[in-house]
Amino acid sequence: MNRRKLLSLLGMSPVLLTGTSVQAQHTEKKAPVSKNSSQGKLTAVNPKGTPPSIQLIPMAPRLDGLDAKTVYLVDTGFHGSDTLLHQVEAWFARNMPQVTIVFRRKAGPYSEDDPKLWKEIKEKGNAVIMAVGH
Amino acid sequence: MVTKAFKELAILNAAKRGMPHERICFTPHPVWGKTADELRVYVDGPDPVSGKPLMKEVVDGLTVPLSDDEKKTGMVSVSVGPPTFTDTADNLQDYYLNNGYTDFLPIILPTEEKVDAMLKGTSHHPDEVVGKMAAGAYPAWSYTVKQVAASAVMSGARPEYFPIILAIASSGIASLFSSTNSFAFAMIVNGPIRDKLEMNYGIGALGPFAQANATLGRAWTLLSKNLGNGGIPGDTYLGSLGNNLNYNNVVIAENEEASPWPPFHVQRGFKPEENVVSLFRGLGVVPGQVARGSSVNESPQFDYQMSDLFSTFTGFFGALIIADPLVAVRLKEQGYDTKEKLIAWLYKNTTQTVKDYKGRNYSYLFEYPQALQGREPFATWYKLPDDAVIPHFPRPESFNIVVTGGQTNAYPQAGNLSYGVSVSIDKWM
Predict the structure, then answer these.
(1) Would you call B59 exposed, middle or buried from its count of C-beta atoms within 10 A (0-12, 13-18, 19+)?
(2) Contact status of B233 with chain A (Cβ, < 8 Å)
(3) Domain ranges of chain B
């Protein structure tokens, strides 16, 4: 399933893909044609809760290249993420040795924030790649 | 960089947080258990979603200038459809099922009449906001009394059950959680409301033998789907195997009258006459009659039996002992005249070696990171030699005990379940 179709499941894709600040369409599946025309019609309540509005966040400007740049590799702590990222590190050493790679394991369990690391990356890094294994 | 199995999760969660065009590249799945050489093949190979070389995607993701879409700001509201639907009963059943509003069993249609009747089960205004719920690390959804009532009707609950359902909803705890671990959930109901609703805490207490027990648990799952947006496979639900207990959860009305100990809610600071629901989360429930200590002699050792039962549990979650009154009474006769004494014995005598502890999945995922931060007892445990013996659970509070059942035999069960919260039902009457 492509990204456009996936986002349509959220009931917000038309807006997220093409515009802002308007009500997105709901994309529920249609009910089938009545199997029993003798049945009377009922009105039933929509049981869904109320989703929060979404504040679109502009993505960070991209770099004009990676030469002489510092890229952080952040391991979130899932099994295998560290081994995977060390292979990414090795790939950069083989193919783009002019890039400085810094490996860090995010502090705490994967669900916890690590503001100290984010601060360090903002101060010393130019880019970050996060990896989630399993 | 995410493994392919979590494509939907990664894209949708980024979108819900305001970045629908987040640059995500994918590796084959899984990476867990793969050698460095195997993962080098992943890194040197293609992104299995786009088909393009993975590391080219990585470099492009960092260097290709942003598109106009990627620079967008502003607020987007998300619709969940109209407030009501009108059609024949058959079509509405199909519609609710096909749109993920149900647990794939037939429902009681939440007609306006039935929802109005359900609303008579509480004094609270239909438009009052009850709380917020998320099925994991997602932005939480909010909901009103009326929205809770719709799912309550769908579950088959009667209006007099509604205060319990509102109390559960007010906790914000969803019984469907996004983890790949296929979590299970449990509730304990205490107080006079058990009898008022004719809840079963006798023979077959955990089985399908009373309307209140059956529908309260089912309602929790429907709330989690409809109010917390949980239970969407690939998006808000990732449990690899799933969990059969999610159909109606583990509903326990405590047999307070037959228990030799104070009821669970009193331990949590409530008065005996108060009505309270207490919620638990974890991995599931196992039978206890096969554990060591369940010998055929005249003196079954339930304390040893429970300790043995816990040997495969993760200490990350707690141990909820579900004791038939015959078990509880026997334990009291053995000297455990309080739950606290039994818990102290279990904490001390349920042990493991450090080697076994470090080899456990949850230790690495959740407790090793805490050990690195100096949090106890994990920091100390990770410094000990492999043959050192340590408690199986990090603290005595990991244990909880509830008594229920019909006294046809002295069998316990136990849940690898952690206590979450106790909520007043009376506040929602």
Answers:
(1) buried
(2) no
(3) 2-71, 89-350+392-428
Q: Which helix (H) or strand (E) holds B419?
A: strand B412-424
Provide long-range contacts, Cβ within 8 A and 24+ apart, for A12-15. A12/A54, A12/B15, A12/B76, A12/B78, A12/B79, A13/B20, A15/B76
Q: Is B296 part of the contact surface with chain A (CB cutoff 8 Å)?
A: no
Q: Which of residues 73-102 of B touch A (CB under 8 A)?
A: 73-92, 94-96, 98-99, 101
Cβ-Cβ contacts under 8 Å for B185 (sequence gap 6 or more): B173, B175, B220, B245, B246, B249, B250, B279, B280, B281, B282, B417
Cβ-defined contact of A84 to B27 (cutoff 8 Å)? yes
Of B170, B162, B169, nearest to B121 by C-alpha is B162
Whether A39 and chain B come into contact, CB under 8 Å, resolves to yes
Interface check for A108 against chain B (CB to CB < 8 A): the answer is yes
The tokens of B343 are what?
């818990």
pLDDT in tens, B339-397: 999 999 999 999 999 999 999 988 988 999 999 999 999 999 999 999 999 999 999 99
Amino acid making up residue B22:
E
Alpha helix (H) ranges present in B131-246? 145-155, 162-171, 193-196, 211-226
Closest CA to B382 of B354, B360, B356: B354
pTM as predicted: 0.92
Q: Which residues of B touch A70 (CB under 8 A)?
A: none
User: What DSSP state is assigned to residue A99?
Assistant: S
- Between the alpha carbon of residue A19 and those of residues A8, B53, B69, the distances in Å are 14, 31, 8
The number of angstroms, rounded, from the C-alpha of B260 to the middle of its chain's C-alpha atoms is 28
Put simply, the answer to whether A91 touches B44 (Cβ < 8 Å) is yes
Q: CB-based burial of residue A77 (10 Å sphere; 0-12 exposed, 13-18 middle, 19+ buried)?
A: buried
Give the bridge partners for A54, in sequence order: B76
ipTM for the predicted complex: 0.91
Per-residue pLDDT of B386-411, as tens digits, reads: 999 999 999 999 999 999 999 999 99
Sequence-distant (≥ 6) Cβ neighbours of residue B51 within 8 angstroms: none
Nearest by Cα to B62 from A31, A128, A34, A72: A128
Q: Which residues contact B102 (CB under 8 A, 6 or more apart)?
A: B96, B154, B222, B225
Q: Which residues of A touch B88 (CB under 8 A)?
A: 34-36, 39-42
Closest among A53, A29, A48 to B223, alpha carbons compared? A48
Predicted pLDDT at A38: 63
Distance set, CA B120 to CA B55, B125, B145 (Å): 60, 10, 11
Q: Mark yes or no for CB contact B89/A39 under 8 Å.
A: yes
B365 and B371 in contact (C-beta within 8 Å)? no
What is the rounded distance in angstroms from the CA atom of residue B233 to the CA atom of residue B239? Answer: 8
The candidate with the shortest Cα–Cα distance to B256, out of B190, B322, B343, is B190
User: Amino acid letter at B61?
Assistant: G
